[in-house]
Specification:
Strand content: 15-25%
Number of domains: 2
CATH topology of the largest domain: Apoptosis, Tumor Necrosis Factor Receptor Associated Protein 2, Chain A
Number of helices: 4
CATH superfamily of the largest domain: Apoptosis, Tumor Necrosis Factor Receptor Associated Protein 2, Chain A
CATH class of the largest domain: Mainly Beta
Distance between the termini: 36 Å
Number of strands: 8
Shape: elongated
Radius of gyration: 33 Å
Structural class: alpha+beta
């Protein structure tokens, strides 16, 4: 119910009673006219208040819509900036996965889901990170999606680094077709606090992107994620990625 409807629902006009006896007809008539005049004044006042409420309600609705549009537009601009920075930034890690077709075939025949993994340092003497790709999906999404796990590993320079790790991580699966429909995922460290603390064991719990990319898109002729029997995944760790 709108604000205006709520205001209308509170209006209750008293029932006017007109006596028909000749003795007090004129007296009651004058009383009724006074009551009617009062009610008309009340109606005018309430009508003006309702109009004002409708204006205020519309302003609130418009403001809310404008805020949502602004946030949506800002997010798009930030994403475009991040993607542009991502695609041109040389301080990234490229993971080339060769013999992809054979890997897919072998994974289908395997009795358990074994991922393909790699590890790298964010910079010399930096954080050590592991990536593990399940080409036929993890147990929770078998034969449906590519699944990707990211893990902070124990490194030789951990005692000199700042913890917890707090830089956003942008991961991209390259589409080499003309469409350039790259698949992007941003990992926000604050959402996975236990995954980005200084490792006490050899590795921390993993951040799991179970639905990294639909397999239907991987093998679709409309895209070219598998180019020359190879997948390319690019990772950017930056201090400014809009999230």
């Amino acid at each position: 119910m709108s604000i205006a409807d709520q205001a209308l629902s509170t209006i209750s006009l008293p029932k006017l009673s007109i006596e028909k006896t000749n003795n007090n007809f004129f007296e009651n008539k004058f009383l009724d006219e006074d009551q009617i005049s009062e009610q008309i004044r009340l109606q005018k006042y309430l009508r003006s208040q309702i109009k004002q409420l409708i204006k205020e309600e519309q302003y609130i609705i418009n403001s809310d819509v404008n805020v949502k549009l602004y946030k949506n537009e800002l997010y798009k601009l930030q994403q475009q900036y991040a993607i542009s920075r991502f695609l041109t930034n040389k301080e990234t890690y490229l993971w080339h996965i060769n013999n992809v077709q054979e890997i897919f075939q072998n994974s289908k025949q395997a009795t358990q889901s074994n991922g393909i993994s790699t590890s790298f340092y964010t910079y010399r003497g930096g954080y050590k990170i592991s990536l593990k790709l399940y080409v036929n999906g993890h147990i929770t999404a078998p034969d449906t999606y590519l699944s990707l796990h990211l893990t902070i590993l124990r490194g030789p320079c951990d005692s000199y680094l700042n913890w917890p790790f707090d830089n956003p991580i942008l991961i991209c699966l390259y589409d080499t077709s003309a469409k350039q429909e790259h698949i992007f995922h941003t990992i926000k460290p604050e959402k996975y606090s236990e995954c980005f603390q200084q490792p006490k064991m050899n590795e921390n719990p993993s951040v799991q992107i179970l639905e990294f990319c639909p397999l239907s898109m991987i093998f679709s002729k409309d895209y070219d994620y598998i180019h020359q029997n190879k997948l390319i995944i690019k990772i950017l760790i930056d201090s400014w990625i809009p999230i």
